[in-house]
Each structure stands twice: as structure tokens, then as C-alpha cells.
TrEMBL record:
A molecular function (GO) term: DNA binding
GO biological process annotation, one example: regulation of DNA-templated transcription
Name of the molecule in the record: ATPase-like protein
Domain of life: Bacteria
InterPro entries to which the protein is assigned, alphabetical: AAA_16 (IPR041664), P-loop_NTPase (IPR027417), Sig_transdc_resp-reg_C-effctor (IPR016032), Tscrpt_reg_LuxR_C (IPR000792), WH-like_DNA-bd_sf (IPR036388)
Pfam families: AAA_16, GerE
Length: 937
């Protein structure tokens, strides 16, 4: 079955190089080992394709599972390919004439047949010598024998003879499956010890890891990227076996969500392959394999026996590789599709009793595996047991903090068309409650919307289900435009359940979402607190309290830390502590935005602890993404781009909650002069639909876009962006969020000559943050005042910038401090202060150390303009051909596809200077074209 080979070779770079080296350095014997579909044939042919054409004879032979009697068939088949490479007859060893009867196609090119000896053993030895002599005559040669595990004894003996005494120019390559060998561990039939001077290698091929599966699937689908959950599920279902990956991918519908893989089923070729393997087993082995297929998961021998297998059959199934041993003395299939293929082939009347036996055996375990019991109950048709075990499994998982498993169990039950109608409502409510704490949401949203649309739910549960749907849409999906109307409708439906309605009002009260004013949010929060005040529901009370704490911290209230200290972190109830976890994770985000970094770190640590303890995945993810923003603000930029990109990949199903990540990626790109990348990331941070996204991040992203327009000289666009963003902030009325918008907005107004508007904005900002615990906003206020005074009142500007620099440094915000310091230095230069030159040179070094190469280049340009120089850091000593700092900056922009003119604009250089740097980069990297330049690490 050498056809089980992937058409795309991935993840085999080391193995490929080893094989090519052996092929080009005869004599050599190479055995390529691996299970069916692992890519043995593809590896061999990839190596052959890389050899110099015509440099050596390539002879291919194939062993077949079903073969007609023909001695030494695979080798004889291979030798038929050498007709055009044979020397003259007189140059051939006379013993090669013994091959005339075996190779009639070559009879005219071979010496006369010698007289046959009477001893069959002597005849066989002469035949082996003839084949060896013929291979020596056409050397150098590659003899490739595929599927050695199916070779007859004669072929094995012949190959062993050639391997023991290989001609100097011969390389023998054989592929085989260890599990199908007649004698385990001996592909050549006997122990082989290679002779001196002969290379002997065994190249084992292992399954692909997740990145390898990703590369293979992308190549097969001709896609540049694939969703991470899809790739993870594909790896899980195929065990990383290339052939199985290929068959599954080729069977996919257009969608590439993880659910699509479950709908594919078992590809036909894989189904046929498993049927072929089962056909060669004894009845006892078939029973053991079928029992393992019914049980699905790797299990112990006793459980397989209880369902219908026995030790003898299990041992045979293991020897031939249909089943494999897993850690802990458990036995199961290589991958899920193999299990499914065998299970589907079991006749229906035989499955039900097998599942009943599995139920009996599993129920006797302590504690009983409830998820497995629910599965086998459903397959056995016992609906009452299925519902009982399914509910119990979800409850246990939730109690243990495994929210993802609880959601998965309930989703599966609700998706079953045979679920009794009266049971849908309770299960839907349970699912919606749990979904609010997890990350995965798409299937939950689809299920709840269908249940609400089709009127499956009773009136008394519709409001709660709708409320939870709205919460999931607002939080996990990050889609407040869809979620908030659902919450609004839910609080109306919950008029007779006021304490539950309080949860909805408390959610609507968080000012980061929606277009309502802060006063409206305050009214809604008060309404929520009034409704929950008389209720005896600790979980709902904790939910409202968590939102109150989040509300206070978000607006920079003086009471924020006092309210935060009242969160019930030690409550015995998991549900109550889960609300406290959500509160702490929100506090981490809000404190980060305000500039309380030490407090944010404490909140984040406590939030992560509680989230892990209670299974609250969503709040824990929020801490991760807002930590990326905190790292940006506090100058921890080393490796930050990679960390942010990794978190973005985790949010493929929930991209809208990763807005902090896109904000940071955009600001990093802005600091290095990657204009197009910066624009794309900042729009992904909420600027695509600013009124429907998380407003504190939207405001910061708008500030980044204003900076981007200013850097590119697009003053009109900068002013327009600033006007729109300020209008949103003014409508909401939470001015502490303006810390990252007001300074660039005021700068844009000042450069446009609209000083009056700039002054009014500064005054409005000052009034809005007065009395607020928002150190970042107060530092930004002085920065904005400095920007307003920069052109006309340099002495005032220098003072404002100095105070801002000191405030930013105390937070700490080193990048913002350097930006304020640059404003101060430029103001002092305008005043004729000669010490400002050294300050500007020092700032260039600080920007460079952070990684803000565009800012560093701007400072150096200012120094050049006044006749001062600030030399760039030199490359590492002793590294021949190493790029200098400037050359690394140029190389990075070249790799991004920037023209010389664009690079010159970013780095404040002349186009001619850039041309020189580009030529040097190409020379040092040893490449001929700009397209071959990779971003420097």
C-alpha cells in the first residue's frame, strides 16, 4: 500500500538530508521505517527528486501484499530499468548471464547463460552473485525496495546478500512497517551488521506535530493560514499521520471550523484500509478490536474483556499494529478515525449489547466515569440513563472548575434531535450559565438563538436564557451591538424575576460599552443594586458587586480600591468566587488603563488564581491580553510582539475580545515605522466599528491613528480622526480614558493652527479628570499642555513637558516619558539651551533600547539638523558580516516590502543613503533580491 503517501513533504527536513547524504555516499544500506501513511514513500521520492538527474541509476521495486509466485520479484522488477545503462557484453561479468531467464528484456545485452549447477543452493548463490555483479556494472546505482514487510523470504535473503557485500557504487533503500514484519524488529529477516566502509542507517518517521499538521493542511488547501482550533482538532483526529491528514482535508467542506472535521466522517480510502487490516485478523482479534472501538478511549485489558474481547485477541491486535499500547497499561487506536472506521463497520444489532456491557462495567468503577456512561447510555438507547449521567457529568465538571467539559457535555445533549422536549429548557439554562465563564461561544450562541427563535423554551426560562446569550455576545464574542439588545429584551422578560434582572442591569451599567452617557450607566448600576439588595442570592449579589467594583475602577473613582476590597474572594461557593474572579480580572484591566500598575499586577494575580480555581476561562484570558498592554506601557517590549501574536492566535473564535492585543501590535508597529501594519492592527482594535466596541481601547486606538497620520504628514486626516474620537469621549463623559488620545489630538489641533479648540479640549480634559485616581491621565494632561504651548511659548512648554516626563517616569511609562522628554528637549533647543542637545542624544538611545526605531531616527534627524551627531549602536564585535543597527532597521523595512523612498521617510534618511544601506544588507546576507530578505531576529 505504498499509495498511502502524502503529496506534500513537511516536517521531514532532517530525515530528508540524512537520506540524501546516504544516497550520494555509497555503499550504503538505509531502512526507512514507519507506520502506514506516515510518508515513507514521499520521503524517498523527495530525496530522489533532489539528486542530479542522470547521475546514477535509480531502480525501483515494490513488494506486494498479494503476489503471484515469482522468485525475487521486487529486485527483478527493479533491474528491468537498467537497459540503457549496461556496458558492452564483453565488459560484463560472465556470471550475469544467469539472469537471462529472469530478465528476458535484457537477454541480448547479457552474456550467454552459464551451465546450471545441479545443487539448488549453488544455483541460488550464483543468481545472487549475478545480481550483485549487474548492479556493480551500472554503478553508481540506487536500489529502492518499497514495503519490505511484504517481501517473500527469497527477496529478503537476496537483499541481505547485497547488504552484506554491497558493490562500491550501490545504495540500497528499503521502506517497511515494523508492525507488519514477519519477525518483529528484523526487516531483513536476520540480525544485520554492516561491513566496514558501508553506511548503515535506520530512519524512523514519526507522526507530525501540530505545526507540521498546520503546514501540511495549508499546503493541501492552498491557504496562507488556518484557525488554530481547526489545526489542533485536525491533529487530534489524525494523530499527525500525513496520509490521514490528507484524506481528511480532501474530504472537508468549504468551512474550516473545528466542527467541520466532525462532520467529515471517515474518508473512504481510510475506511477501506482499516477493513483490509481487519480482514487479516483472527476472530479473537476482531472481537478485541471491536470492543476497543465501542469503548472509544484507550482502556485497560479488563474493560476490553468485559465488553467482548480477550487477551489472545488483544495481543494479536497489538502485534500487527491495529491497536497500540498507551501509557498506563491502556490499549486503543492510533487515531480517532481508525476507531470510527471500525465502529461503523460493526453491525447495528451487535453494537447495542456491547454498549450495555460497557455501561455495566463502567458503572462498577469508583468514581464512575460519568461522561463515558452518558455516551454509552445514549448509544444503547437508554434515554433516562443518558439524561441522568449527562447532567451529573456536567455538574461534576462545573464543580471541579472544568467549565469547558461541562459546556461540551451540555452542547452535545442539546444538539441531539432525540432529546425530549421538556428537558431542553433546563439544559439550555445550565449551558448558558456555564458559557458565560468559558471562551468558546459560537456553538452556544447558535443553540441559544435557535431555542429562543423556535420558541422551544418556557416563558419562565426564556428571560434567563436570553440574558445569558446577551452576556456571552457582549463578553466572549465582544459584540455589544448584538449582545446589548438581547440584554435589554431580557430585563423586560425578567420583570417577575427582579434579582436576575439585576444581573442584566449591572452588565448594561459598565460604561465601556454602548453609546450612553456615564449618567445613564450610573442610573442602571443603581437600579441593579436596588433590585439585588433584598435578594438572598449570593451569586447574583456577587455578580452585581463585581460590576460595581469594575465600574468604580473604570472611571477612576476615589472609592474604587475600597469597593474592590469587598469582593468575596474566600466565599465557600464556587459560583460566588467565580464572580469575584471576573471582578478582579476587570479590575486588572481598568487599573492598567489608569496607570496603577502595581495594583493591576496584584489584581491580575488574584484574578488568575480565582479563575483557575473556579474554571473561569474568559476572565483569565482577559488578564492575559491586558497584561500585554501593561507590558507595552511599562516598557517590557522584549518578545512582546511574539507574545501578542500568540494570544491573537488563541482568539480565532473570539477575535473581538483580543482588542488589547491588536492595540499593542499597532502601537509597536507605529514605534518602528511600519505604517500599513500599524493602521491594520489599530483598526482591528475597534476602529472598524467604534460605537460597538470596547470604548477605552477604541479611544486609545484612535490616539494611535492620530499619531500615525501625524507621522505620515497627513495633518487633515489627523485632525478629522481627533475630532471624531474626542466626540465619542465627550458623549460618554469618562475623561480618564483620554490619557492616550488627548496629547496627540491637541498636537494635531495645534499644528493645524486651531489653538483655541486645543485649549478648550485641554481645559475640558482637566475638568474631567479632576479628583480622579488616574495617574496616566494626569501625566497626559501636562503632556497635552506642553503640546499646546510648544510653538509659541517654548518656556511654558518645557515646564509642562518636564512635569509630564517625571510623572510618566514615576508610573512607570518609559516610552511616554521619552516622548515627553523629546518635547522638553525641543522646547529647550528653541530657547537656546545647549544642554538640550545631549538630552536629545540620550533620548535617541532610550528609544533605540526600547525598540522604537522610528522615534530614535526622528531624534537623530533633529540632531543632524542642528549639526550634532548621535552615532548608532555598533553591531556585535567579532561577528563577520553582522548587520549594523541601521542596517537591521533597513533590513526589517525591506522585508516588509517598503520602497527606498518609504524607508527614507521612516528613518529620516535620504533615498541615496537608503540605497547604499540596502546594497550592503543584500551583500552581507548573501542574497540577490530584496524579496529574499527576511526580517532580522
Amino acid at each position: 500500500m505504498s499509495s498511502l503517501a502524502s503529496p506534500v513533504l513537511v516536517g521531514r527536513t532532517a530525515e530528508l538530508q540524512v537520506l540524501i547524504d546516504a544516497m550520494t555516499r555509497p555503499p550504503a544500506v538505509v531502512l526507512v521505517e514507519g507506520e502506514a501513511g506516515i510518508g515513507k514513500t514521499r520521503l524517498v521520492h523527495a530525496a530522489l527528486s533532489r539528486l542530479v538527474s542522470g547521475d546514477r541509476s535509480v531502480l525501483l521495486g515494490y513488494c506486494h501484499q498479494i503476489r503471484e509466485p515469482f522468485p525475487y520479484g521486487p529486485v527483478v522488477e527493479a533491474l528491468r530499468e537498467i537497459a540503457g545503462r549496461l556496458p558492452a557484453i564483453e565488459a560484463l561479468n560472465p556470471v550475469t548471464g544467469a539472469l537471462r531467464d529472469y530478465l528476458p528484456e535484457l537477454a541480448r545485452a547479457l552474456p550467454p547463460s552459464p551451465r546450471r549447477p545441479n545443487d539448488p543452493r549453488a544455483e541460488r548463490h550464483r543468481l545472487f552473485r549475478a545480481m550483485r555483479a549487474l548492479l556493480a556494472a551500472v554503478g553508481p546505482a540506487l536500489l529502492v525496495i518499497e514495503d519490505l514487510h511484504w517481501a517473500d523470504d527469497g527477496t529478503r535473503d537476496l537483499l541481505r546478500f547485497l547488504a552484506d557485500q554491497p558493490p562500491r557504487g550501490l545504495t540500497v533503500v528499503a521502506t517497511y512497517r515494523r508492525e507488519d514484519l514477519g519477525t518483529p524488529g528484523l526487516p531483513l529477516g536476520h540480525t544485520y551488521r554492516h561491513p566496514p566502509g558501508t553506511t548503515s542507517l535506520v530512519i524512523p518517521l514519526r507522526p507530525l506535530d501540530v505545526p507540521g499538521v498546520n503546514s501540511l493542511a495549508r499546503a493541501l488547501l492552498n491557504r496562507s493560514d488556518l484557525p488554530a482550533p481547526f489545526v489542533a482538532r485536525l491533529h487530534e483526529r489524525t494523530a499527525g499521520i500525513p496520509f490521514v491528514v490528507e484524506e481528511v482535508v480532501r474530504s472537508l467542506p468549504d468551512a474550516e471550523g473545528p466542527d467541520a472535521l466532525d462532520r467529515v466522517g471517515v474518508p473512504l480510502l481510510l475506511r477501506e484500509a482499516m477493513a483490509e487490516r481487519m480482514a487479516g485478523l483472527s476472530a479473537a482479534a476482531v472481537s478485541a478490536v471491536q470492543a476497543a472501538a465501542v469503548l472509544r478511549l484507550p482502556v485497560g485489558e479488563q474493560l476490553i474483556a468485559a465488553v467482548g474481547g480477550d487477551s489472545t485477541g488483544l495481543g494479536e491486535a497489538l502485534r500487527v499494529g491495529v491497536l497500540r499500547e498507551h501509557p498506563g497499561g491502556r490499549y486503543g487506536f492510533r487515531h480517532a478515525l481508525a476507531q470510527q472506521a471500525v465502529y461503523d463497520a460493526i453491525p447495528g444489532p451487535d453494537r447495542r449489547p456491547a454498549h450495555e456491557r460497557a455501561m455495566t462495567a463502567l458503572a462498577a468503577m469508583e468514581p464512575p466515569p460519568l461522561v463515558q456512561l452518558a455516551y454509552h447510555s445514549r448509544q444503547a438507547g437508554d434515554m433516562e440513563a443518558w439524561l441522568r449521567h449527562g447532567r451529573a457529568a456536567a455538574d461534576r465538571a462545573a464543580a471541579l472548575g472544568d467549565t469547558a467539559l461541562a459546556v461540551e457535555v451540555l452542547e452535545g445533549m442539546l444538539a441531539d434531535p432525540d432529546l425530549p422536549e421538556p428537558d431542553r429548557g433546563p439544559l439550555a439554562l445550565a449551558l448558558s450559565r456555564l458559557a458565560a465563564t468559558g471562551l468558546s461561544h459560537q456553538r452556544v450562541v447558535r443553540l441559544l438563538r435557535r431555542l429562543l427563535r423556535d420558541d422551544f423554551l418556557a416563558r419562565e426560562v426564556r428571560g434567563e436564557a436570553r440574558l445569558n446569550l446577551g452576556l456571552v455576545l457582549c463578553n466572549q464574542a465582544g459584540d455589544s451591538a448584538a449582545g446589548r439588545p438581547e440584554i435589554m429584551a431580557a430585563v423586560t422578560e425578567l420583570h417577575d424575576r427582579p434579582t436576575l434582572a439585576a444581573r442584566g442591569w449591572a452588565s448594561l451599567a459598565l460604561p465601556g460599552w454602548g453609546t450612553e452617557s456615564l449618567a445613564t450607566h450610573e442610573e442602571w448600576m443603581a437600579r441593579a443594586e436596588a433590585l439585588v439588595a433584598t435578594a438572598g442570592t449570593p451569586e447574583l449579589a456577587a455578580a452585581v458587586l463585581a460590576n460595581r467594583a469594575s465600574f468604580e475602577m473604570t472611571i477612576g473613582s476615589p472609592d474604587a480600591f475600597t469597593v474592590a476590597a469587598t469582593l468575596p474572594v474566600a466565599d465557600p461557593s464556587t459560583a460566588v468566587r467565580r464572580e469575584a474572579a471576573r471582578g478582579y480580572c476587570n479590575l486588572h484591566d481598568a487599573a492598567t488603563m489608569l496607570g496603577h500598575y502595581a495594583a493591576a499586577e496584584r489584581f491580575g494575580k488574584e484574578g488568575r488564581r480565582l479563575a483557575a480555581e473556579t474554571g473561569a476561562q474568559y476572565p483569565a484570558y482577559l488578564v492575559d491580553v491586558s497584561t500585554v498592554r501593561r507590558n507595552w506601557l511599562t516598557g517590557r517590549w522584549d518578545g512582546l510582539r511574539d507574545r501578542a501574536a500568540t494570544l491573537a492566535e488563541l482568539a480565532t473564535e473570539t477575535p473581538l475580545i483580543a482588542v488589547d492585543v491588536w492595540l499593542v501590535l499597532g502601537l509597536l508597529a507605529l514605534a518602528t515605522g511600519e505604517w500599513e501594519e500599524a493602521a491594520g492592527h489599530l483598526r482591528g482594535a475597534g476602529m472598524d466599528a467604534p460605537d460597538a466596541r470596547f470604548l477605552p481601547v477604541v479611544v486609545a486606538a484612535a490616539g494611535g491613528l492620530v499619531e500615525l497620520h501625524l507621522a505620515r504628514g497627513a495633518l487633515e486626516s489627523a485632525v478629522t480622526e481627533a475630532e471624531q474620537a474626542v466626540a465619542r469621549l465627550r458623549r460618554k463623559g469618562v475623561w480618564v480614558w483620554g490619557a492616550y488620545l488627548i496629547p496627540p489630538a491637541v498636537t494635531a489641533f495645534a499644528r493645524a493652527g486651531r489653538l483655541r479648540e486645543g485649549a478648550e479640549l485641554v481645559a475640558e480634559f482637566a475638568g474631567g479628570i479632576a479628583g480622579r485616581l488616574a495617574p496616566a491621565a494626569h501625566a497626559a494632561l501636562d503632556h497635552a499642555r506642553g503640546a499646546l504651548a510648544a510653538d509659541r511659548r517654548p518656556a511654558d512648554a518645557a515646564g509642562f513637558f518636564a512635569r509630564s516626563r517625571e510623572a510618566y517616569a514615576a508610573l512607570p511609562q518609559p516610552y511616554a516619558a521619552a516622548r515627553a522628554g523629546e518635547g522638553e528637549a525641543r522646547a529647550r533647543l528653541a530657547l537656546g539651551d545647549r544642554h538640550a542637545t545631549s538630552a536629545l542624544a540620550e533620548l535617541a538611545e532610550r528609544f533605540g533600547a526600547l525598540g522604537a526605531t522610528h522615534d530614535a531616527a526622528r531624534c537623530r534627524r533633529a540632531l543632524r539638523d542642528i549639526g550634532a551627531e548621535s552615532p548608532l549602536p555598533r553591531g556585535r564585535k567579532g561577528t563577520a558580516g553582522a548587520l549594523s543597527q541601521r542596517e537591521r532597521e533597513v533590513a526589517r523595512l525591506v522585508a516588509l516590502g517598503r520602497t527606498n523612498r518609504e524607508i527614507a521617510d521612516v528613518l529620516f534618511l535620504s533615498t541615496r543613503t537608503v540605497e547604499t544601506h540596502v546594497a550592503t544588507v543584500l551583500r552581507k546576507l548573501g542574497v540577490r533580491s530584496r524579496t529574499e530578505v527576511a526580517p532580522p531576529v
